[in-house]
Amino acid sequence: MEAIHFIDKDGTFSITQPENYSYLYFPIAGENGLKSALTPNLGGDIKANQNAFLMEPVSVENLHNNRSGRNFWCHVEGLGAWSAVGASAEEESRKFTKDQDNSELTAGFMWQTVSRQSDKYQLKAKITSFVPLEHNVEIMHVELCNMGKTAQTITPTAAIPIFGRSADNIRDHRHVTALLHRIKTTDYGVTVKPTLSFDERGHRKNDLTYFVCGITGAGEKPIDFYPVTEDYIGEGGSYAHPRTVLQNKQGVPSGKCYEGKEALGGIRFSTIVLKPEESVSYTVIMGITQQEEEIEDIVLAYVKAEKVKEAQARMHDYWQSKVNVRYDTGNEQYDNLLRWVSFQPFLRRIYGCSFLPYHDYGRGGRGWRDLWQDCLSLLIMDPGDVRQMILDNYGGVRIDGTNATIIGEKQGTFLADRNGIARVWMDHGVWPFMTTKLYIDQTGDIEILKESAAYFKDEQMQRGGGLDTQWDPSYGLKQKDENGTVYEGSILEHLLLEHLCAFYEVGAHNHIRLRGADWNDAIDMAAENGESVAFTCAYAGNLRQLSELLLILEEKFGWSQVELLEEIQVLLDDNVQLYDDVTAKGELLQKYLSRCQHNISGRRTQVPIGELAANLKNKAEWMAEHIRKTEWIEKETDEGWFNSYYDNDGAPVEGYFEQGVRMMLTGQVFAIMSKTAQDSQVHKICKSADHYLYQKEIGGYRLNTDFHELKFNLGRMFGFAYGEKENGAVFSHMTVMYANALYQRRFVDEGYKALQTLADAAMNFEVSRIYPGIPEYFNGSGRGMYPYLTGAGSWYMLTVVTEVFGVRGEIGDMAICPKLCKEQFDSEGNAQIWLRFAQKEFHVTYKNPLKLSYGEYAITKATCDGQTELANLDGTALLDRKTIASLSDTVHEIEIELGRR
Ligand code: G1P
Fold it and tell me: Cα torsion at 606, 609, 615, 617 (round to 10°)?
């Protein structure tokens, strides 16, 4: 039997003896800020943000090193002390022997239950962990059962070490910051309120209280406490061998205070006599609050075991309903995996890119590109707030087309660059359009393009090329005009500036300069002369699509003019001599930038929309053609691909080298997606990718071949071991975008292969060693790395919904054009998807009784609720927005019949 198996259609899975696998952890969190990571032995950590860790922050290597996890001990008279979480020196010594506790982990969205049974102690424990919706706490609910034939005398003790400070203090004054601790015992537990916090903000008065409380399932208070670590472990003891527990020593009563010690939420409950088969339960509540006085009320909200169960059920329903897309491809494993993949964007919204053990960098939050891409899946699942999110995010764009890179905690807040260090990632300009385009398609809300937003302003000017000495913080963080008024421009204007400025910022080969890096953060050592052909393709694709959108606005919606900032005129020059001339382009950009260094005119100009569309199209076509002419690499007749980069010495990076073939996936993805690659070229790219990059067992398409060189003239990625992370791993995000691009171009078999290989590798637990989901990447041995928090989640789901099942918006209408492979229909030839569109619920069923493959089938009939026949345009079934709006609030059945074309 597979080590991991699903037990329902909600994604709930279970695994036996999970502690026998390394590096496993599970996320549980809520919407109020608390974020936890849990190992099978309940190690991991709990935090609200970088400066507020309740448990000591852990990186992956700590998962098997640290003993300071959550523990729950049962001192059993006559036998010793059993750790119900399996974290004891005794159990460690029994590991991998026949005496090891039997254990099983079951988990679903935001909850984990570990059951463990000991032969020696004849006890069974079932420990459920979750973060309830109502309070900012983690709950650990322990149910104990006597499995023996005789009654047992048991004294239970919860023991959760309280770090109670900033993650910075792990190696920066760990001891001194313990001296700040003020520890108290209360009726229910232990609180720690440090006097000060020491972190990157300096030394400040602290107002957070960290607490660990406990109550029995019947509502009884604990009897005493172990609030101080050194007293608890005893001289020479450890968390895995706490001498107080082993000796069942008395703790201290409530109402005691301690200063300057490492703290522990040590909570001893009264001794009980548990008869055979009798059960008892305990609830441990761990949290961080500014209102110390609310702690008791929180505890009392979970006064009885039933209250905990009810809170768990509410939490369960909440997260299940959030992931409101369900799939049926006839493969339950895969459909369940897709539920986890669809859940991953929620996790990244909460955890950012920082707060799980592999993600041991950053200080929380997400970067600019992640912010936008995570919106993609929200547009499918939870579009309600996305409009505002998009508008707020545009406030981060500068007038020079770059953007703020430090993103505040509150939506739409951006911070000035620290210490005037410019960081320009050249890909940043492409993501807002991709998200906005999807938004417009899904909602039909073209008006968003006319909405206005301010521009971000800080010390940086000229795309990071200089500092605006006239700016100081009193100016504020919003661009002003000559009158000192905050200037607001339309969303369309923001988009234009992002693309036009990039268009002119070219290097020696007339592709857009790489600057600090592009999507690949680790291509970061070619700032002077590097160029990213890959993202030049992406900009070209966007410019083309933007021009197509403008034409639709003119033709279908009667827009004739758009109002733009006067200075933009400079960037709208449109002639091929200019496009061909690297120096002239640079000068033109400089002309614009020098006009926008400090304040801008604030004057506006009207531009005819048709003219603007033609202008953008010309630029897009010029870029694509230039790349086709200069970057195509072909030696073998049936192989070929595009060079993706130029290094800092101005040399192309890919091709046939002494050290072997050098090929990178990124350039191919955007060449395909942007239609820079012609169909014949896509065929050759696929062949080459299969030849040089594909390795089935480790997830499929790698990011690059082995360059066998430390290319310090390109990026730190070459310092990473080959096959790890950005250096040639199967990096899910790019592999999924590769699949997406192929589907868009109707290379369905090829796209399916890329998507499915990733999923197969993820689900092959014996190799991937991860819980269900798509990891950021697979390493050289196929282990899934950096689980949960990856942009691949959003893109995977987007690709499955809008390309594979082919349900997507077209300026508000619902268009259905399936690209399902034969394998994705069940034994009767059906495939189904449940999703929301335009605030209505739909169940779409595809019927393919002849079991035809893609390419063989066409839509022969399409109906909604058995009556309304859908328009069938060029093989796409269409349900217009008006009809959708008139539908009731029940689930609507769309049936798509597929027959021979
Ligand atoms: C991560 C980052 C993303 C970056 C990528 C490649 O990818 O979050 O911004 O573009 O590495 O360097 P992810 O974890 O989203 O797959």
Answer: 160
Smallest Cα–Cα separation from 265: which of 192, 181, 182, 176? 192
What pLDDT shows up at residue 366?
81
Which residues make Cβ contacts (< 8 Å) with residue 178, sequence separation at least 6?
A: 260, 261, 262
Partner residues linked to 192 by β-bridges: 183, 210
Q: Are 53 and 373 contacting, i.e. CB atoms less than 8 angstroms apart?
A: no
- With a CB cutoff of 8 Å and minimum separation 6, the contacts of 535 are 426, 427, 430, 512, 518, 519, 670
Residue-wise pLDDT tens digits, 102-142: 999 999 999 999 999 999 999 999 999 999 999 999 999 99
User: What's the CA-to-centroid distance between 352 and ligand 1, angstroms?
Assistant: 11
Task: Note the pTM of the prediction, 2 decimals.
Answer: 0.97
Q: How far is CA 89 from the centre of its chain?
A: 36
Residue closest to 596 by CA, chosen among 472, 474, 509, 471: 471
Whole-number pLDDT of residue 200: 81
* Cα of 547 from ligand 1 centre, angstroms: 29
Q: Please identify, by atom number, the ligand 1 atom nearest to the C-alpha of residue 792.
A: 16
**344, 354, 370, best to mutate for ligand 1 pocket (most atoms within 8 Å of CB):** 370
Q: Is residue 420 predicted with pLDDT exceeding 80?
A: no
The yes-or-no verdict on residue 1 having pLDDT over 60 is no
H/E element, 784: strand 784-785
Q: Rounded CA gap, 677 and 641, in Å?
A: 9
Q: Helices (H) and strands (E) in the chain — how many of each?
A: 23, 52
Angle at the Cα of 317 from the Cα atoms of 311 and 323, rounded to 5 degrees = 140
pLDDT tens digits, one per residue of 555-573:
999 999 999 999 999 999 9
